[in-house]
Amino acid sequence: MKLKALESHLQEVEVFSDPKVQFEQYPTSAHLAARIAYMAETTYGDLTDKAVADLGCGCGMLSIAAGIMGAGLLYGFDIDDDALEIAQGNLETFELEMELVRVNVVAGRLLEEEAARTEKKEGGPRQAGGKPANVAASSAAQDIALDRIAPPLARFAKQFDTVIMNPPFGTKPGNRGIDMAFLRVALGLARTAVYSLHKSSTRDYILQRAAAWGAKGTVLAQLRFDVPQMYKFHKRASVDVEVDLWRFELGD
Q1: Of 13-17, 189-193, 212-216, where does the model show the most confidence?
Q2: One GO MF term, please (predicted)?
């Protein structure tokens, strides 16, 4: 399927009608979802006939994009019942099968730990000239993601070829470090690759943490995430946030 056709299909996905600020619910646009899924499949072959998980799936935009591109098995994980209900309706509209699981992805001490790390502002390797970053995992890296997966998710450890996600950025009180907590869990669930969106301003830190967790991180593209006026505290009609599309590759 061509990129434009995929994006056109995704325009039909229903998104949040009453988003919840505590979960930082911002819909992934059809434009971004199409590009993520298209690149994952056409460049790396990470979707067709693969077991794919969408972490923090929300209304299912990324999941549906993966399904249209031929994913063999789909799972969606989210904390919000209302979002999962919308996702179920979208799956029925697109005639796709996906197992939806209600779970707190970052339950337990995981968020606490990543919030503390973020607070310390551990610096990672810097990339001169703003070029796309590509850092290999340390040979001494331990697979420390697995021992911090929330119990309801632990049975899915290393059960997916590919994990796709647009995690909360951690900009709201109480959510500090949540983006890295999501990444830590995703690396524990995936066997081959994780695709994720993160604020470009966190690039160096993400490189350092991913390598420590045994993953090779590559920035595939720098994109603009359009945040619409969805909450009362939003002063402008929309804001463009610079984000990186990452691919994290896991070794055997």
Answers
A1: 189-193
A2: rRNA (adenine-N6-)-methyltransferase activity
Q: Which tokens in the block code for residue 75? A: 């799972």
- Name the pTM for this structure: 0.83
134-135 sheet: strands from edge to edge: 99-102, 73-78, 51-55, 160-165, 190-199, 238-250, 215-228, 134-135
Residue 88 has pLDDT above 90, yes or no: yes
Average pLDDT of the chain is 82
- Residue 14 inside a domain? The answer is no
Closest Cα to residue 165, out of 2, 18, 24? 24
Residue 120 CB neighbour total at 10 angstroms = 8
Domain that residue 195 falls in: 3-8+24-250
Measured between alpha carbons, how far is 180 from 167 in angstroms, rounded to an integer?
9
Rounded Cα gap, residues 250 and 252, in angstroms: 7
Long-range contacts of the stretch 231-235 (C-beta < 8 A, 24+): 231/19, 231/21
Beta strands in the chain (DSSP E): 51-55, 73-78, 99-102, 134-135, 160-165, 190-199, 215-228, 238-250
Number of domains in the chain: 1
CATH number where 188 lies: 3.40.50.150
Stretch among 25-39, 165-179, 206-220 having the lowest mean pLDDT: 165-179
